[in-house]
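Customer escalation, tier 2.

The customer says the design service returned an amino acid string that "doesn't look like it belongs to this structure." They asked us to rerun it and document both sides in this ticket. The original structure tokens are below, unchanged.
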């Protein structure tokens, strides 16, 4: 199945809106420990748990252990993030930034960035500032997405959202601060990478997070609420709102690692496919999992009458679309050293079969 993207026509006449409360009060963290699905990754079997990436268990093929890999990468990234954004004055601002930035999560975007860098022969230290920047931008998007004027959510990663703790004003500003600091951090902290490549990393992230990426997808998503939209518009939303930052994570890692143009484009195709699959799976999980399992409010899209893949295609067809996207992504890794490609193969499968 080849996914064809057509850009939607301009949607005019959408006034500012505030979504009604669709959240469910739930202070529980996701239940952990139950293994729910096993699947092959070439010669690797990955078991995805109902909580976080730390519960993904892998039967190693050769010396590669996906569970150990993700735990190790999460520790590296968390340490780097903690050092990059220390607590300082103004206290409330930095507390708010760190509250969301260091709240855990799967760290998929940094892991993709570091894996792409290593795939092309680079050292993780070259891509770590970019990896941290991806998580800063992603965290900003979560803080802002949870606001009452956006998705109006009370819980994220199993605990109260930023604005519920610090207020809307501080939440907006802490998101702004994380977004702008992401670019400063790349420019200031990247070592051993040529200036032209650092500049290109900054450009890639800027495009992914702005009016040609995440923001564009969010705007069309807002304007499409309570409307009947087709697959072309839905693909536009998902590719821009979700896939763009996943694509930037992989591409920026490859650039920092010294990849040539042919390799960069292959990895761009890989990441575009897993990015779209990520959101298709998100749509599926929104209607199949509980708030406790997701660590955020379930059934939000249904409550606000948002168009999703299950709504347009049904659950089974949506699963087929996600499976095909993951397959086509992994095909882009053919020809690379199998050991170096193993993390990206496993990450693609993890995205395709995750349960939260």
């Amino acid at each position: 199945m080849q996914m064809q993207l057509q850009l939607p026509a301009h949607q005019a006449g959408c006034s500012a809106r505030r979504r009604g409360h669709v959240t469910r009060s739930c202070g529980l963290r996701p239940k952990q420990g139950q293994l729910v699905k096993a699947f092959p990754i070439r010669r690797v079997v990955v078991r995805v748990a109902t909580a976080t990436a730390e519960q993904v268990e892998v039967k190693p093929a050769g010396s590669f252990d996906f569970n150990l890999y993700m735990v190790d990468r999460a520790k590296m990234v968390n340490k780097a993030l903690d050092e990059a954004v220390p607590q300082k004055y103004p206290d409330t601002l930095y507390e708010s930034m760190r509250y969301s930035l260091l709240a855990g999560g799967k760290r998929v975007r940094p892991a993709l960035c570091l894996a792409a860098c290593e795939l092309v022969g680079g050292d993780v230290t070259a891509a770590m500032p970019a990896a941290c920047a991806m998580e800063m931008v992603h965290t900003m998007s979560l803080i802002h997405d949870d606001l009452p004027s956006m998705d109006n959510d009370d819980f994220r990663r199993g605990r109260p959202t930023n604005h519920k703790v610090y207020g809307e004003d501080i939440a907006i500003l802490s998101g702004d601060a994380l977004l702008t600091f992401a670019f400063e951090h790349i420019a200031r902290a990247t070592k051993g990478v040529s200036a032209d490549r650092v500049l290109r990393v900054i450009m890639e992230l800027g495009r992914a997070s702005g009016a040609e990426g995440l923001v564009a997808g969010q705007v069309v998503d807002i304007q499409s609420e309570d409307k009947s939209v087709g697959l072309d518009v839905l693909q536009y939303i998902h590719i821009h709102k979700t896939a763009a930052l996943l694509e930037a994570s992989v591409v920026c890692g490859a650039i920092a690692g010294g990849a040539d143009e042919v390799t960069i484009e292959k990895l761009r195709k890989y990441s575009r496919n897993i990015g779209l699959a990520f959101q298709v799976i998100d749509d599926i999980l929104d209607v199949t999992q509980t708030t406790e399992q997701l660590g955020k409010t379930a059934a939000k899209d249904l409550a606000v009458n948002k168009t999703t893949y299950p709504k347009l295609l049904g659950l089974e067809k949506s699963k087929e679309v996600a499976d095909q996207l993951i397959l086509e992504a992994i095909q882009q890794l053919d020809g690379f050293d199998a050991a170096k490609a193993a993390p990206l193969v496993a990450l693609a499968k993890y995205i395709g079969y995750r349960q939260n």
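Tier 2 assessment: The sequence is consistent with the input. Residues 261-288 form the longest helix (28 residues). The beta strands are 35-41, 44-49, 57-59, 155-156, 159-160. Sent an explanation to the customer and offered a walkthrough call.
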